[in-house]
């Protein structure tokens, strides 16, 4: 690719996002010149900011909170994953206009594969029924777990999400007040944003099999409360940094046609290295 590929991340907050660092490393790894910048942008500012990005030669973008639903409005084509989740995290400009996709769920599956955690045939318990849960549920169900249960503080929201995906597998939604008899789950997925306030959803070790594994969609400080709980329960736990790198690798492939390697980038992030 002879010209520099102009890319951006839109959202609020974005100041501490790792995405620019990740994509710099992907560009170095593949020999693709790119200019990837984080643009702080609230919902009401997205239209004019995105229009200015297009005029400046923008060819692809990532969207984070609070813009993932707003991204649907700028797309001429929307991929199935984004339609199902009602959220776009990756935009690419093609000859017929802007295409929107959602790589969150597939990014999670890439990281679970890397960790040797295949949900196929397993009993999966997901905590949370918001946008993060909706974004990963489709690809998770594609792996055909034996059972997926969604628990949420608002029972109706969990039930609605489960109903939306009922045709994809055995999936049940409910509130924490209905979880008393749950047990034997193999994989716990923490999909709430509670950790950003250094809080935890109400969790019970008794819901899980003795050999269960936990995965938090959060990473960094937001992961710490859940990690501490897992440690007290002697529960193997993984954070969502690998998912972040995985969904970024899939976005990079959408923009460039090249799938970068996740492992060296993930290792560099964990060691605190910064790309030159």
From TrEMBL:
It catalyses: shikimate + NADP(+) = 3-dehydroshikimate + NADPH + H(+). Signal peptide: none annotated. Residues 9-91 form the Shikimate dehydrogenase substrate binding N-terminal domain. NADP(+) binds at residues 128-132, 152-157, 217, 240. Pathway: Metabolic intermediate biosynthesis; chorismate biosynthesis; chorismate from D-erythrose 4-phosphate and phosphoenolpyruvate: step 4/7. Residues 240-270 form the SDH C-terminal domain. One of its GO terms (cellular component) is cytosol. Keywords: Amino-acid biosynthesis, Aromatic amino acid biosynthesis, NADP, Oxidoreductase. Residues 120-195 form the Quinate/shikimate 5-dehydrogenase/glutamyl-tRNA reductase domain. Homodimer. Involved in the biosynthesis of the chorismate, which leads to the biosynthesis of aromatic amino acids. Catalyzes the reversible NADPH linked reduction of 3-dehydroshikimate (DHSA) to yield shikimate (SA). This is Shikimate dehydrogenase (NADP(+)). It comes from Wenzhouxiangella limi. The lineage of its organism: Bacteria, Pseudomonadati, Pseudomonadota, Gammaproteobacteria, Chromatiales.
């Amino acid at each position: 690719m002879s010209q520099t590929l102009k890319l951006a991340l839109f959202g609020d907050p974005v100041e501490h996002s790792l995405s620019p660092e990740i994509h710099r490393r992907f560009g170095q790894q593949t020999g693709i010149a790119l200019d990837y910048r984080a643009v702080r942008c609230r919902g009401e500012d997205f239209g004019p900011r995105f229009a200015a990005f297009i005029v400046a030669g923008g060819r692809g973008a990532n969207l984070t909170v609070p813009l993932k639903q707003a991204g649907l409005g700028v797309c001429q084509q929307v991929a199935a994953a984004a339609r199902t989740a009602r959220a776009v995290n990756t935009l690419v400009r093609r000859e017929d206009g802007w295409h929107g996709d959602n790589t969150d769920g597939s990014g999670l599956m890439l990281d679970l594969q890397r960790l040797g955690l295949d949900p196929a045939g397993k009993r999966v318990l997901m905590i949370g029924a918001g946008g993060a849960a909706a974004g990963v549920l489709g690809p998770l169900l594609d792996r055909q777990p034996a059972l997926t249960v969604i628990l949420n503080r608002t029972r109706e929201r969990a039930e609605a999400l489960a109903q939306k995906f009922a045709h994809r597998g055995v999936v049940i939604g409910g509130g924490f007040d209905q979880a008393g008899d749950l047990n034997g789950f193999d994989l716990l997925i923490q999909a709430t944003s509670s950790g950003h306030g250094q809080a935890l959803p109400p969790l019970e070790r008794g819901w899980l099999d003795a050999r269960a594994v936990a995965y938090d969609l959060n990473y960094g400080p937001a992961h710490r409360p859940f990690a501490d709980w897992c440690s007290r329960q002697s529960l193997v736990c993984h954070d969502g940094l690998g998912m972040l790198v995985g969904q970024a690798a899939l976005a990079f492939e959408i923009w460039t046609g090249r799938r970068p390697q996740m492992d060296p980038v993930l290792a560099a992030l964990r060691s605190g290295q910064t790309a030159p």
